[in-house]
């Protein structure tokens, strides 16, 4: 019954947004309250769950998204994005640019949190789209598929790292297996699948549209790449420092602070104000005006993501994810497939890949202890399942929809299918490796 209620709420949510033309944030609030009532969450806890969901979601994303938008806006308006696009196009040519962006997304996605990677790479994607008149979805999906795979499959991302610990797996072996599975998953869900949706029309946000700039006035190549990718360099450096300082508590605390994505984005934005702003002849007032405009442009995106967080929290507090997972325990299927199915269904219901992965881990861990299944492959199976069919209750869905300015229908046809391909390809890869290493 709980599954039917969740499905009913999701259908009503879609209808409110598509047929009713209701603002997505308002629709989320309405459905969150409705879901709480139907799932018999105590009345006095419904609004507290909604508020907690909004607070928890925005608490982890608001600074990253706003600061990322600021950096992206300045990268676009300073001509740095145009310079990067020109260099990439000259290096790889229009024919292979899509693959170049995909490889870039995969490399930076390993040390980079998904939210940071998304808001960092979107300006680069859009600069190519606007400058060379290429389809936005066609160009963007491969890079975002790479970011998604690293988020769900590979340590040191939060969910895979926690799963490695809970299953008693090896971080190194899991990363090795994950890389073997990730590469074909990205290729299939990225360049190959994007050919099928090349016709989907997208009018990306004007926020990242690069200004027409005389090529002689563009920032230097090194300045453009280093400033744009400074968060990547800083996160990579702090990750290495964290490893070497793990036995030194005094240094470890400082490294932990400076490795926070929000602080790294703040440092990057301040550096960009000088390297792309002041050094390019802008006044500080002009740079701050660019940053102010960037925040205005992402305001509604933040509200929509907050709404999806409210719905996720109501479903989590009602216990529906645990009910669904418990019902699946009796399925007569291979443990790796069972774990994938559990994570996938929970993901579809609650929207969060991390929640889906960790909830599944609590159920599968006892089963894993009594079987001969490879723990490293179990981590990857759960990780793959946790990416299945991202839709309207997932913040990533709304990030993609709003940044690429797509309809709900086209977002389902592109983003949701891409995530499903990643999940299914991941499971196939896990089962192939299981037949080899078991």
Automatic annotation (TrEMBL):
Predominant subcellular localization, coarse grouping: membrane
GO CC annotations on file: plasma membrane
KW Ribonucleoprotein (keyword) present: no
Subcellular localization(s) per the UniProt record: Cell membrane
Residues annotated as transmembrane: 26-43, 55-76, 96-129, 136-154, 174-193, 225-245, 257-278, 298-316, 336-365, 377-400, 420-437
Domain of life: Bacteria
UniProt membrane topology term: Multi-pass membrane protein
Record keywords, A-Z: Cell membrane, Membrane, Transmembrane, Transmembrane helix, Transport
InterPro entries associated with the record: Glcn_transporter
Gene Ontology molecular function: gluconate transmembrane transporter activity
PANTHER family in the cross-refs: GNT FAMILY GLUCONATE TRANSPORTER (PTHR30354), HIGH-AFFINITY GLUCONATE TRANSPORTER (PTHR30354:SF22)
Similarity remark: Belongs to the GntP permease family.
Official protein name in the record: Gluconate transporter
